[in-house]
Amino acid sequence: MNTPGGPAEIKRSAAVQKIFADTSGTPEQKTQRMFSVLIPERWRQAHPDPSTYVPPVTETISPEVRAKQNAAVANWPGIDQQLLSIRTPTLIMAGTEDEVVPPGNALTLARQIRASWLVRFRGGGHGMMYQFPTQMAEVVNTFLATAN
């Protein structure tokens, strides 16, 4: 879960949604489109060779599966009304430049989940695990070692 869903959710832009819905083109064109929203432009410019930070793509998503995923995201009623009842320590990580799940959603989650940690990665996109793998691992390890 990375958004409360429902009326509290901050939706992605129509432009980003269009990219997710577009299944046309060669595998390279599809990859370029996805990278354009997963990794912020400034970071891509500073790190122009994705092979140095993203593992090779070995599986693809069929247009049918992608359409079902997009429909599920669009139609999810959310759990924003249930968040206050969560008592389990919860780690919330967000990139400040995430275009897929706008970072304001992480703030909503953190405000409503009492035992939450919110960690924001400055300049991070939705693919921040490729941008900041070591830092994310350190956060997860610290959270697991101390949050209880």
TrEMBL record:
Gene3D superfamilies: alpha/beta hydrolase. Pfam families: Abhydrolase_4. Residues 87-147 form the Peptidase S33 tripeptidyl aminopeptidase-like C-terminal domain. It comes from the Bacteria. Transmembrane segments: none annotated. This is Peptidase S33 tripeptidyl aminopeptidase-like C-terminal domain-containing protein. It comes from Lamprobacter modestohalophilus.
